[in-house]
Write a structure and sequence with these properties.
The chain is an alpha+beta fold. The chain is built from 13 helices and 23 strands. It has helices at about 30-35, 35-50, 140, 170-175, 180-190, 210-215, 225, 230, 295-305, 305-315, 360-375, 385-395, 430-445, and strands at about 30, 55, 65-70, 75-80, 85-90, 105-110, 110-115, 120, 125-130, 155, 160-165, 195, 200-205, 270, 280, 320-325, 325-330, 335-345, 345-355, 355, 405, 415, 425. The strands form six sheets. The protein has a nine-stranded antiparallel β-sheet with strand order 13-19-18-17-16-15-14-23-22, with helices on both faces. A four-stranded antiparallel β-sheet has the order 5-4-3-6, with no helix packed on it. The protein has a three-stranded antiparallel β-sheet with strand order 2-11-10, with no helix packed on it. The structure holds FE2/S2 (inorganic) cluster (FES) and fe (ii) ion.
């Protein structure tokens, strides 16, 4: 990957730089919110270190000793299943002199050994070996700080493991609000109520701010333009040469007919609730792909009864569940978990794990992986459009003027949703992004120390 070229700083804004609250208005946010390294630092502390951050699905670490490395904001962490099958989230840092203990993305270990001076730790984080220990006073060897530190809170909701470095705050279920139903809804789509997330990962980075991907997961305004090659009737992702008439469409697009001021993409809804939690509900048959299979339908009817099974299939409720601040889950079609990891103000990493449904024919799961490959992989026909756009936005914002990024679409027209403080709009409205920024402003301006 190319390194990020130095960009000139955004000129001093007209707002008071010490008052971050002024950077967010109801209908717009200041460009500095996406480009200022000082604001990024504050976000790591006030957004990521207060929130519940998705770590893993249980199926990624099924056996004793299985682990994967992750991050909570700037904290490197290890998610690991110990010998008693309990899951821990440990800071990935040696208690001796500070070295990162584990560099691998995932694997299986009996214990963690530090490469610097050889201290070793059980999979529950306990210190188990100190080379040449006789030079240490006995009292020192009893110090509990010699073991790996545990992240303050870990919660597992039906196999989805989240962690928070904040000692206190809302529980996971309180924090994710309506998206708890999104997780239930996702699991209900399995005839056994279970999924598997061990099919592999797509991992890449873009030169842009992390919020761009989190907003884009709720943005149904952009597909006819950013994804024209996919969704227009003459869209052809694969052509032998530029402008050629031949070629073929890899994905089937949606109905391109526009109704004057209203887009086809308004046939769904976008919801924004407390804590920045938001979701899209897109009743779009093209997203179901291999899930539109008679045997799969029969199995769902067997589990849930006709009415609920049909509602699940037809409504596509919470088709994109966007867990602020770090995950997008796609629960229909190319089902996947997409984790957004901020690296710096202008560099963001994305990890996509395709979801496999337990208890269905292999062909259905192969179809989900195939769909994820052409939709959200680094060589896909859709997400690559978005990554290019994120980089264009980040570059464009360096212009400095105009000062603001506009989020007014549908403002004043959105209506109350079924959950507390929830607002609902047509799918192309910026209702979900406004909910994200309500929470952002609240956290960024609230001192807790
Ligand atoms: S820093 Fe890990 S053993 Fe010394
Ligand atoms: Fe997109």
């Amino acid at each position: 990957m190319q390194t990020l070229a130095p960009l000139r700083p955004v000129p001093a804004a007209e707002v008071d730089p010490t008052d971050v609250g002024q950077l967010v208005r109801e209908d717009r946010v200041h460009a500095r919110v996406y480009t200022d390294p000082a604001i990024f630092d504050m976000e790591m502390e006030r957004i990521f270190e207060r929130a519940w951050i998705f770590m893993a699905h249980e199926s990624q670490i099924p056996n004793a000793g299985d682990f994967l490395t992750s991050r909570i904001g700037r904290h490197p962490v290890i998610v690991v299943r110990d010998g008693k099958r309990q899951v821990h989230v440990l800071y990935n840092r040696c208690p001796h002199r500070g070295a990162i203990l584990c560099r691998e993305a995932e694997g299986n270990v009996h214990h963690f050994a530090c490469p610097y001076h050889g201290w070793s730790f059980r999979t529950n984080g306990d210190i188990t070996g100190i080379p040449f220990r006789s030079a240490y006073p006995e009292s020192f060897l009893k110090d509990e700080n010699l073991s790996m530190a545990h992240v303050a809170r870990v919660e597992n909701y039906r196999g989805f493991i989240f962690a928070s470095v904040a000692e206190q705050g809302p529980s996971l279920v309180e924090f994710i609000g309506p998206l708890k139903d999104g997780l239930d809804n996702l699991l209900d789509r399995s005839p056994t109520g279970e999924i598997d997330v061990s099919a592999g990962v797509h991992q890449y980075a873009y030169k842009g701010n992390w919020k761009m991907q989190m907003e884009n997961g709720l943005d149904e305004y952009h597909p006819p333009f950013s994804h024209a090659s996919t969704v227009k009737p003459d869209g052809q992702q694969v052509q032998r040469s530029y402008g050629a008439k031949g070629g073929f469409k890899v994905l089937t697009g949606s109905d391109p007919n526009q109704e004057n001021a209203r887009s086809h993409y308004d046939h769904g809804e976008v919801h924004g609730a407390r804590h920045g939690q938001a979701y899209l509900t897109i009743p779009d048959a093209t997203r179901r792909s291999e899930l539109d299979d008679p045997e799969y339908r029969r199995l769902l009817v067997e589990r849930h009864g006709q009415e609920k099974a049909l509602a699940l299939i037809e409504s596509s409720n919470m088709s994109n569940a966007v867990f602020y601040p770090s995950v997008i889950m796609r629960v229909t079609g190319n089902m996947h978990i997409r984790v957004v990891r901020p690296i710096s103000v202008g560099l963001t990493e994305v990890l996509v794990w395709p979801i496999q449904i337990k208890g269905v024919a292999d062909g259905i799961n192969q179809g989900i992986v195939r769909y994820a490959n052409v939709h959200v992989s680094v060589s896909s026909f859709v997400q690559t459009d978005d990554l290019e756009i994120f980089e264009r936005v980040y570059e464009g914002l360096q212009a400095g003027k105009p000062d603001w990024v506009m989020l007014a679409r549908g403002m004043g027209q959105d209506w109350d949703g079924p959950y507390p403080d929830e607002k609902v709009g047509l799918a192309t409205w910026e209702t979900g992004m406004r909910a994200q920024f309500r929470y952002w402003k609240e956290q960024m301006t609230e001192d807790r120390r």
